[in-house]
Amino acid sequence: VSDSVACVAAQTTFTAVANGASVTSYQWSFSNGVTAANSITQIRFAQQGMHTAKVIASSANGCADTATASI
């Protein structure tokens, strides 16, 4: 998970990169309740403070891996 600095009301971009894996789906969830299903997603945080982003990358054979970042 890579991210830019989250600023209030600013659009923040999150990118999931799967090295050497054939990922068929991504499931993002954020501490503000927003969810997304793309490898790259953009959200806005309405409140200043610490936020958490979590992404689960899954492959066709049923393998999955989770990454979490706090910003």
Structure explained in plain terms:
By secondary structure, this protein is an all-beta fold. The protein is 0% helix and 52% strand. It has no helices and seven strands. The chain has strands spanning 2-3, 11-15, 23-30, 35-36, 40-44, 52-59, 64-70. It has a four-stranded antiparallel sheet, with no helix packed on it. The protein has a three-stranded antiparallel sheet with strand order 1-2-5, with no helix packed on it. A hairpin with a 7-residue loop joins strand 1 (2-3) and strand 2. It is elongated, with a radius of gyration of 12 Å. The N and C termini lie close together (11 Å).
Short description:
The protein contains no helices and seven strands. The protein has 71 residues and is mainly beta. The strands form two sheets. The protein has a four-stranded antiparallel beta sheet with strand order 4-3-6-7, with no helix packed on it.
Spatial extent as radius of gyration: 12 Å
Mean pLDDT: 86
- Gross morphology is elongated
User: How do the strands line up in the largest sheet?
Assistant: 4-3-6-7
| Estimated helix fraction | under 10%
- The SSE string, one letter per element, is EEEEEEE
Classification by helices and strands:
mainly beta
List keywords for this structure.
71 residues; mainly beta
Topology:
Layout: E1 2-3, E2 11-15, E3 23-30, E4 35-36, E5 40-44, E6 52-59, E7 64-70
Antiparallel strand pairs: 1-2, 2-5, 3-4, 3-6, 6-7
